[in-house]
Amino acid sequence: MIPQTQELMVDLDSIYHAIEYGGNEEEIKSKTLSVFANWSQGTYGSGSDTDVFILCPRTTDGTAVLKGNHKRLMDFLAKLGESTGVMVFKATLEYSREGMPIHLEAYNLPWVINPPLGERPLYLFDKDTMYKQQWMLKDICAPRGRLVCTVSPTNKRAVIPSDAFTSRPPDFTLFGPGFLGHRDVIIDVYTLQAVVLIPKDRISRALKSRKQMMDATSSFRTMGSSASDGPEWGPSVCLKNFPAEVDCVHLLENLDLSVAQERPGVWNEVMGILCRFKTAKEIGTSRIFASIRKFSFKKVRPFLDILVTRFDTVNDIFSFTAGIKEASQLQDQDVVRQWCADRGDNQIMRILGSDEKTLPSLVQYAFVNGLPLLSNFIKSLSKDKTVGFTFWLSLVSHLDRQWQSVNSLSFAGAPLHELYSMLDCCIAAMTPLVTEGAVYTLVPPGLMDDVRHNAEVHVKRAVILIEICLRFSPGRCGEVLSDVLLVPGDLQTKFDLLLRPFVRSLRPLLNQYGVTIFRPPFSLFYRFLIGMFLGNLARSGKPPLARTLCTKKVVCDRCEFIENFLSSGEESKELIVTNKEWKHVRYVFPKLKDRIFPPTVTSGHSWKTIRITRRPEARTEAAREFLLMIGDEGDILKLVGPLKKAVWETLKNMEPFDIEPFLQFPPPTTVGSQTA
Questions:
Q1: Which residues on adjacent β-strands are paired with residue 55?
Q2: Residue 254 lies in a domain
Q3: Looking at the whole model, is its pTM more than 0.90?
Q4: What is the rounded CA–CA span in Å between residue 252 and residue 238?
Q5: Which one of 203, 230, 258 terminates a domain?
Q6: Are 222 and 215 in contact (CB under 8 A)?
Q7: Phi/psi of residue 111, each to 5°?
Q8: 3-state DSSP call for residue 523?
Q9: Residue 474 parent element (H or E)
Q10: Domain coverage including residue 139
Q11: Which of 141, 223, 307, 560 is 20 to 30 A from 653 in CA distance terms?
C-alpha cells in the first residue's frame, strides 16, 4: 500500500471536477501542472514501487463512456502538450461483464522506463467508486512502444511475459535506458483513448545530465546537425532507438536543412524509419507536404515511393499526387510530374485491377490517360500465376467494349497497335489456362462426372480463346490448338471427352469467320488429328472403344472377354453371364451397342448364355463419323493430300494403312509457330 496514493486521486479528481463543472482554464492548467510537478518529484509515491497510474472514469452501470466533458479534457491536455510535453495516444480498454477493466492496449508510447527484473505493481483507479485494483505489471516495454496489460481471470494479475527485461530493447528506448527514471509516465484512459504525460522540465534535466543543452524539442535539431556528437548519443544512435513513428515525423519537421545536405547518413536513417508507416493517415498528408516544401521533393522521394503504395482508393491517390505537385511549387516540376504519372498511375492500376468488378473503371481510366499505362500493368500481371482464366476473359471483354465505344484509330496519344499488343499479351496469358490441370485417364465411375465436367470447361475455354485469336491475334491460334492437342492422358478418353466436342464446336466458328480447314495452322491441326485417330484405328484393327474404369479388385474376365473379342477376327461368340455381370459390362463399355448387334439369349435363367455378333461396319462407321465432323468428304480427301487414296481404301476395305507418311508432318509443338 502506498500512503500517497490517495493524494494523487484527490488531485486528479479535482481536475475532472473543474472540467465537468466548467472551471477556469487557467485553474485547470495550474492543477494539471501541479500534478506533473508532484509526480516528477515523487510526492505521490516511491519510484521503486510505482511505475504507472491509470485512471478509469465509469458510469454507475459499470460501462465506460466518453462524455462531452471527458472529451474536452482530452482536447485540453492535447493542446496543453504543445507547451508542456504532453503527448496524446490511442488506447483500447475492455471491461468484463462485472464492469472490471480486464484489458488495456496502448501503442507508440515513447517510454524510457527501464525497470529492474521481476514483477512491478500497477495500480488501476476508478474515479467514481475510489476502487483500487492492483495488477502485477510484468512488461511495460513491449515492441514498438506497445503496452499490453491483461488481468488473469483467476488471480486478477497482469499476465505479461517479462522477456523484455532480460536485455536492453534497442527498438523501444528513446534516449537510452533509465534516461528519465521510473516516475515520469501517467496514462489517463478515457474509453478507447489514452494520454501519456511526460513533464517537459524532467526531460530537460535529463538531457542536461547527458551534456545536451536543449530541451527535447530543440535537441532534435541540435543532434541532427551537430558534428561533435559523441558515438553513444550521436544522431545514428538516437534514430535507431526511436520507438514511435510519430516521434520520427516530429524529428523530420525539426531537422535543419543542412542535415539533408551535409549528413546523408542521418537523412537516410530518417527515411528508413518513415518507410515503416502503414498508411499516410498515421502521419498526416499536410505534414508530408510541409516536408517537401522544406527539403525538396528529391530528398523525400524514397519515403514517398513507399507511401504511395499504401493508399487503397483512387481518390486518395489523386489527392496525394495533387498535394505533392502543389507542395513542390516550381522545384523539380518535370521530375514531380513524371513521378506522379508513374507511381500514382501504377498504384491506381493495382487498385482497379485487383477485382473483376473494378475492371470497367480500370479500362476506362487507361483509355483516358493513355494505353501504355495499362499495357505495363498487363505485362506485370501476366507474370502472376494466380490470375485465372475468367479474369483475363473479363479484361479482354472490357477492352473490346471500350474500344468499340471509342471507335477511333488513335486515342490519348496511343496508336492502334498498342491495343492489339495488350490483347496479344492477354491471349498469351490465357493459353496455358485453357486446359489447366487436364489429365484424361481412366478413373473410377464415381469420378467420371468430374472429369466430364472439366472437359466441358476446357472445350468452352478453347473455343472462346480461338474466337478471340481470330479477331485480334490470328497468329496465336496455333498455340491454342497445340495446347489442346497435347493434353496428356488416355487417347480414347481424350478423343471422347475433349477432341470430339472441340472439333464439333470449332467447325461453325471457322465458318462464321470465313476460315477454311486448309488455312494454317488449322490445316496442320486437322492433319495431326486425323493421323492420331486413323493411326490408332489402323494399329489396333478395331475402332477405339470408350470405356470407364473397371473397379473390381481382380481382373474382370467379362470385360477382358469383350476386349479380346472386339480385337479378334471372329464374327460371333457365346458368353455365359448373369444379369448383374452383363449390366456391369454395359456400364464399362457404354458404346458397346455401336460395335455389336443386340445379344441373343440362347438358354438359362439366372445364368444365361448369350451370343454376341460383331458389326462388320463398325470401324468404318466410326472413322467416317469422325472425318465428316471435320468437313465434307471432298475437303477431307483434299486435306490429307497424297494419303487420300490410302485413307479411303483403308476405310473401305477395313485394312490397316501405313501411318508413317503422317509422321512426316511437323510435330505438334511447331503448330504454334504457324501464322494465319
A1: 125, 188
A2: no
A3: no
A4: 13
A5: 203
A6: no
A7: -80, 150
A8: helix
A9: none
A10: 5-203
A11: 560
